[in-house]
Amino acid sequence: MNLNATLIAQIVVFFILGWFTMKFVWPPIMKALDERAAKIADGLAAADKAKADLALAEKKAVEEMRKARESAGDVRATAEKQGAKVLEDARAEANRIIAQAREAAEGEAAAAAQRAKQDLREQVALLAVAGAEQILRREIDAKAHADLLANLKQELQ
């Protein structure tokens, strides 16, 4: 066989094989590689987006915690103010009730003293009338008058 013919046949077969590979084999391989590269790029983009979302979520969580602490502080301050107000109102009400009770007790004491004085006056008047009646019934005698007055003194004490 002729070396030149073999060489030319091999070159022709090589070009046919190259053309066949470029026409039918190479496009699916390139398509699969492009799809794989697109999936990898999408995965990397999703990872970057997830990382950004995580950072944003962390910032929001920190902000919400700060707001919750402030809100809790406000609620606590409001509760303390309300507690102090309730305590002050209770003290004022207690002082008012004590003052009313004191005034009522003083009024009752004054009324009782007035009644006692009135009763004492009535008793003194009765005793004076009784003493005068006894004096008038007995004969007029200085010694008898002195005894009656002494008796009257003892009754008054």
TrEMBL record:
<dbReference type="InterPro" id="IPR002146">
    <property type="entry name" value="ATP_synth_b/b'su_bac/chlpt"/>
</dbReference>
<dbReference type="GO" id="GO:0046961">
    <property type="term" value="F:proton-transporting ATPase activity, rotational mechanism"/>
</dbReference>
<keyword id="KW-0066">ATP synthesis</keyword>
<comment type="function">
    <text>Component of the F(0) channel, it forms part of the peripheral stalk, linking F(1) to F(0). The b'-subunit is a diverged and duplicated form of b found in plants and photosynthetic bacteria.</text>
</comment>
<dbReference type="GO" id="GO:0045259">
    <property type="term" value="C:proton-transporting ATP synthase complex"/>
</dbReference>
<keyword id="KW-0813">Transport</keyword>
<dbReference type="InterPro" id="IPR050059">
    <property type="entry name" value="ATP_synthase_B_chain"/>
</dbReference>
<dbReference type="InterPro" id="IPR005864">
    <property type="entry name" value="ATP_synth_F0_bsu_bac"/>
</dbReference>
<keyword id="KW-1003">Cell membrane</keyword>
<dbReference type="GO" id="GO:0046933">
    <property type="term" value="F:proton-transporting ATP synthase activity, rotational mechanism"/>
</dbReference>
<comment type="subunit">
    <text>F-type ATPases have 2 components, F(1) - the catalytic core - and F(0) - the membrane proton channel. F(1) has five subunits: alpha(3), beta(3), gamma(1), delta(1), epsilon(1). F(0) has three main subunits: a(1), b(2) and c(10-14). The alpha and beta chains form an alternating ring which encloses part of the gamma chain. F(1) is attached to F(0) by a central stalk formed by the gamma and epsilon chains, while a peripheral stalk is formed by the delta and b chains.</text>
</comment>
<keyword id="KW-0175">Coiled coil</keyword>
<comment type="subunit">
    <text>F-type ATPases have 2 components, F(1) - the catalytic core - and F(0) - the membrane proton channel. F(1) has five subunits: alpha(3), beta(3), gamma(1), delta(1), epsilon(1). F(0) has four main subunits: a(1), b(2) and c(10-14). The alpha and beta chains form an alternating ring which encloses part of the gamma chain. F(1) is attached to F(0) by a central stalk formed by the gamma and epsilon chains, while a peripheral stalk is formed by the delta and b chains.</text>
</comment>
<keyword id="KW-0138">CF(0)</keyword>
<dbReference type="GO" id="GO:0005886">
    <property type="term" value="C:plasma membrane"/>
</dbReference>
<feature type="coiled-coil region">
    <location>
        <begin position="47"/>
        <end position="107"/>
    </location>
</feature>
<keyword id="KW-0812">Transmembrane</keyword>
<protein>
    <recommendedName>
        <fullName>ATP synthase subunit b</fullName>
    </recommendedName>
</protein>
<keyword id="KW-0472">Membrane</keyword>
<dbReference type="GO" id="GO:0012505">
    <property type="term" value="C:endomembrane system"/>
</dbReference>
<comment type="similarity">
    <text>Belongs to the ATPase B chain family.</text>
</comment>
<keyword id="KW-0406">Ion transport</keyword>
<dbReference type="Pfam" id="PF00430">
    <property type="entry name" value="ATP-synt_B"/>
</dbReference>
<keyword id="KW-1133">Transmembrane helix</keyword>
<feature type="transmembrane region" description="Helical">
    <location>
        <begin position="6"/>
        <end position="26"/>
    </location>
</feature>
<comment type="function">
    <text>F(1)F(0) ATP synthase produces ATP from ADP in the presence of a proton or sodium gradient. F-type ATPases consist of two structural domains, F(1) containing the extramembraneous catalytic core and F(0) containing the membrane proton channel, linked together by a central stalk and a peripheral stalk. During catalysis, ATP synthesis in the catalytic domain of F(1) is coupled via a rotary mechanism of the central stalk subunits to proton translocation.</text>
</comment>
<keyword id="KW-0375">Hydrogen ion transport</keyword>
